[in-house]
Records
---
Amino acid sequence: MVNVLPALKRLRRIVPPLIALPLLASVIQPPRYGGELLARQAQLVFTPLALDADDPARRRLGELLYLGGWAVQSADARFGGLSALHVDDGDAIALSDGGDLVRWRLGGGAATIQPLAQGPGAAFTKRNRDSESLVAGEGRLWIGYEGANEIWTYDPLTLAPLGRAAPRAMAGWGRNAGAEAMARLPGGRFLILEEAAAGADGTVAALLMNGDPADPATETAALRYRPPAGYRPVDVAALADGRLLILNRRFSLFGGFTAKLVMARIAGGSIEVEREIAHFAPPVVTDNYEALALTQENGRQILWLASDDNFNPLQRTLLLKFELGG
């Protein structure tokens, strides 16, 4: 590495300090946290997966029909930690909990990774930019930040911020519990779920917002959700009829990661589970499933599932495709 500090020190003698200091900061900061605004290209490698390694022909899991799955890798160190997913017309947008958006065309290997350069906190660190939930639509992206308990909205191309809010009802949610799951409901309302261990009554907090969650003036109603025992909600998606698919995850030292997908509906002040759709546990391929997306293909309801590898070499980024009710 070329040592640029002596030259910058000489520069400060002839350039006013207010100019020289920003120059110094821009050079010595590492690129990952230095405010790099330009998107970077990356190559993704997709390795096909069987739903059940013990029974490679298996395609049925509960009410889901397995259409394909892949372990996804990239040489780019920024790829991973996928916590939310949006799929539309063959284009995928994944949100990492490190504050990056990953975009690619389904069926292709070329991807774009772009950082959320503006968000909660003064520093570009996971503590401030723990981005966990994503909704895309109407020419904007809504992103929920777990640690900050804030919702921001961005231009989908430039990622320039368009609005932000810190809902008062989320103020008491824990640093590792807030805005984990978010969905836009038919009619424009938003649902946000807390990721937390269930309280004494077996429920966790949720918010029903009567409009844009990044607008501080939006009215909010408190709800309660009862996840499957021992599980925590990590993502949610809304069906056209207003019902909800909620992804719930559990981790145990000896059992590893398991997940349960349930169908639910909003009823009064609660979210009521109607039934279990699928249970992800060995011998079915499992990891830290956190991201859920719904789309349509030729009249079929398609469900996508992605895992968060926590940037841990012992885990994998998995992408699974199912038909709901197939």
---
Amino acid sequence: MQAATPHDSYAALMDLIKARHAELSPQFQAGARYLADHPDEVAVSSMRSIAARAQVQSAALVRLAQQLGFAGWPELKAIFVERLRAGQAGYAAKAGALAGKEGKERDLVTEVFTAQQRNLAATESANHTALDAAASLLQAAPRVHVAGFRAAHPIAYTLHYLYRLLRPSVQLLSGQGGTLEMDLRALQAGEAVVIVSFAPYSSEALLVAQAARQAGCQVVAISDSAMSPLALQADASIVIAVDSPSFFPSIVAGVAAVESLVELLVARAGPDAVHAIGAAESQLRALGAYASTSNDVN
């Protein structure tokens, strides 16, 4: 009997993996997460090497493919090959090739900047559709809340600060003074909550996600994996690369992602956004927020 192969695109496959994730065995979950997080490698690497990197048995990848409705591994891999052929990962591939030409004795500064170039390229290439979907969700929501804690806070704050220039009602769920639970009580059905977090995921971020779902809110996740605990319960998911040669995850690509998201929102809002931003800028100048210089540069 021929196995069903209902997946005609990479996006459809990712949707299926997210929908089935909870029912997969731990071994299958590990394999599925690696597929979602490293689509370029899946397209060009052998099943054995992918299994080794994912720390699962090769046979587990075959069984995972079958459980997802494919005849076997080659049919599943074909989805990733087509994604790469279509050019969706072109920037990441170019960045990887450029990094490969670096000398073996790169200093720490060069190492960090090279990693950021890869992070930006990978995040950009993977999120055109995701950013568009997130912008649509936020634009339609009657109210928007933003949350991000610890290392993820700068990304969340950047989104809050920029978005608030054109939409003053945007709220930051900071939990300042230990009042996070009080902030969460204000969530209403139909509102949107943007949550930023990456491994190790903060307990506060997961608490916000749970409260948002219980309140009937739409959730936008910005995290480091399509299989993260945030992405798995989100209505829209933006996956950012956080790799770093340093001891701490990088936030550079996350900041770029939220800047791109705000650009989309400004473009969609049109003249209304221009008016709101102009009014905010005028008020800031009137209140003395910017230092006066000979060139009047802020």
---
Amino acid sequence: MKNIVIHSDFRKSYFQIKTQGEIECSVFLSLINLLDYKEFVQLDSLNIILDLRKTQLKITVNEYLSLIAPFAEMVGKFKYVKMAKLVDTPYETALALLFHEDTHNISNLDCNLYNTTSAATRWLFNS
């Protein structure tokens, strides 16, 4: 996927997804489909850092909200999912907060926003 770097550690069920440049809705749908892959679902739990810093989201609020159903379906295949989002602009922060508000009822999902990788990593593995 263009403008995306993914690091993973299967022993920790950990994925770091770093985006940069212009990102459209279809990229997020591709990421959801990637995490829904049967090899990953066998991990039982999932720890994700989604780094949206240095990213310009070319996505409308309605497009962003359209990702909730496929995201919820993917999350439902795991026992537990923790996701830390890294943001650094007002627009990405607003969309991340909106997404968080609309996914707070997913019982096996814990999601928080951060502006540094170290804070996100501490929360992901120490709480």
